[in-house]
């Protein structure tokens, strides 16, 4: 697969997989797993079936190019706070379950990354095979005990290699960041107390009506006794146009296909949904009017990722309940509300697409109304 190299000590946390090399780059790390970008996972030569006696192919460098395919490695590293046997069982079973969910989605036409490889390394010699206290010298017995302790402590990660989807997340596609800069010029002369109190009152009233910017950068400079404060902050707004509505509708259709395959995602957020072919037309820009015709022809390819919390039934007669599907939709709905302001229109488009894609959408929507009521009661009464 990949040439093994010694594990670097600069990486925080558990050591990387044994086949890690310096070309890998860490994308994200959580409590459960790490996500790596493997740039040269597959390498193959474009010169297939070339004639060895041909001299033209030898001089034609374009036919001898090697193509590399990148991949995503999701590594579930061992947890030191768990028992070695339990940790090995949980790590391998969760990786295997995620692989099954992705394969089942592919079988039913759901857009998900391709599974390129799975590495379920079993922790070797967890049980102590170091025999009794019989013959042999004392030195040999100590060496056996030390070797057994090393094998007991050795635990490997379980890795799932997936297709590297070239695109963007639905969250970054919907969010638009605008930077505002305000410059206030103040002299060193003292102001009356009444004016100062009035200014503070105005600021308090303004803070009550408008949200406070989280990340504000203040730069002060004094020129000829005049102090000017430059405050720059970024404001994130939700992009709502024909492109985002079409992406939200396609998202609902994709989730409906997944539920038809009897698969519950468990962690549906806008960060776990990718767009393979994003349409770059920011609202209000000059290109947005010129690409209006291409927007109608654009068919977004929404890719679902991160099936680590997914659940599925191997028995075809046992269908996942409408309750689980409704909770899946409710999680996505809350993700829209908390991450994207004023996104009610997009949520309606997701539900409209889900109705078109899911066979049991009517029953799921009835259960979703009950799930929403339970959520309101929990917010009111804690």
Give a structural overview.
This protein has a 5-stranded antiparallel beta sheet. Strands 6-11-12 form a 3-stranded antiparallel beta sheet. With 382 residues, it is of the alpha+beta class. The chain is built from 11 helices and 13 strands. The protein starts with 24 loop residues before the first strand and ends with a helix. Helix 9 crosses helix 11. The protein has helices at residues 56-59, 84-107, 138-153, 170-174, 193-209, 242-260, 286-290, 292-297, 322-339, 344-357, 361-381, and strands at residues 25-29, 34-45, 66-76, 115-120, 158-163, 168-169, 175-187, 216-223, 226-238, 263-264, 273-275, 302-304, 311-312.
Class based on secondary structure composition and strand pairing: alpha+beta
Uncertain spans? 1-7, 125-138, 142-153, 189-193, 214-218, 283-290
State the order of secondary-structure elements, H for helix, E for strand: EEHEHEHEEHEHEEHEEHHEEHHH
Kindly, what is the distance between the CA atoms of the first and last residues, rounded to a whole number of angstroms? Answer: 51 Å
Main beta sheet, described? 5 strands, antiparallel
Care to count the β-strands? 13
| Sheet with most strands: strand arrangement | 1-2-3-5-4
Helix content: 25-40%
Mean pLDDT across residues: 75
- Total helical elements: 11
In short:
With 382 residues, the protein is of the alpha+beta class.
Summary tags:
disordered N terminus; 382 residues; three-stranded antiparallel beta sheet; alpha+beta; five-stranded antiparallel beta sheet; globular
Secondary structure elements and their pairing?
Layout: E1 25-29, E2 34-45, H1 56-59, E3 66-76, H2 84-107, E4 115-120, H3 138-153, E5 158-163, E6 168-169, H4 170-174, E7 175-187, H5 193-209, E8 216-223, E9 226-238, H6 242-260, E10 263-264, E11 273-275, H7 286-290, H8 292-297, E12 302-304, E13 311-312, H9 322-339, H10 344-357, H11 361-381
Antiparallel strand pairs: 1-2, 2-3, 3-5, 4-5, 6-11, 7-9, 8-9, 10-13, 11-12
Helix pairs in contact: 6-10, 9-11
């Amino acid at each position: 697969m990949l040439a093994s190299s010694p594990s670097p000590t600069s990486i925080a946390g558990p050591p990387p997989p044994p086949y890690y090399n310096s070309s890998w780059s860490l994308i994200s790390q959580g409590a459960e797993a790490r996500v790596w970008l493997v740039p040269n996972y597959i390498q193959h030569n474009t010169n297939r079936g070339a004639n060895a006696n041909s001299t033209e192919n030898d001089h034609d460098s374009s036919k001898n190019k090697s193509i590399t395919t990148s991949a995503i490695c999701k590594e579930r590293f061992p947890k030191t706070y768990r028992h070695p046997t339990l940790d090995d069982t949980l790590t391998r079973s969760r990786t295997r379950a995620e692989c099954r969910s992705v394969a089942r989605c592919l079988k039913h036409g759901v857009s998900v990354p391709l599974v390129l490889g799975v590495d379920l390394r079993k922790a070797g010699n967890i049980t102590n095979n170091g025999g009794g206290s019989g013959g042999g010298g004392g030195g040999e017995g100590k060496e056996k005990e030390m070797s057994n302790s090393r094998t007991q402590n050795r635990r490997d990660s379980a890795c799932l290699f997936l297709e590297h989807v070239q695109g963007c997340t639905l969250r970054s596609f919907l969010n638009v960041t605008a930077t505002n800069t305000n410059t206030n010029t103040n002299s060193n002369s003292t102001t009356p107390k009444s004016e100062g109190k009035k200014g503070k009152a105005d600021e308090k009233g303004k803070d009550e009506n408008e949200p406070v910017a989280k990340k504000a950068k203040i730069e002060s400079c004094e020129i000829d006794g005049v102090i000017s404060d430059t405050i720059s902050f970024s404001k994130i707004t939700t992009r709502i146009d024909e492109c985002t509505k079409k992406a939200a509708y396609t998202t609902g259709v994709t989730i409906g296909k997944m539920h038809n395959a009897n698969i519950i995602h468990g962690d549906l957020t806008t960060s776990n949904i990718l767009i393979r072919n994003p349409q770059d037309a920011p609202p209000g820009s000059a290109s947005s009017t010129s690409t209006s015709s291409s927007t109608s022809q654009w068919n977004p390819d929404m890719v679902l990722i991160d099936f680590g919390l997914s659940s599925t039934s191997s028995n075809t007669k046992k269908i996942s309940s409408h309750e689980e599907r409704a909770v899946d939709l409710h999680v996505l709905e809350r993700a829209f509300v908390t991450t994207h302001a004023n996104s009610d229109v997009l949520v309606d488009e997701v539900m409209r697409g889900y109705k078109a894609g899911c066979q049991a959408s009517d029953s799921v929507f009835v259960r979703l109304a009950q799930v929403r009521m339970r959520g309101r009661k929990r917010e009111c009464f804690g």
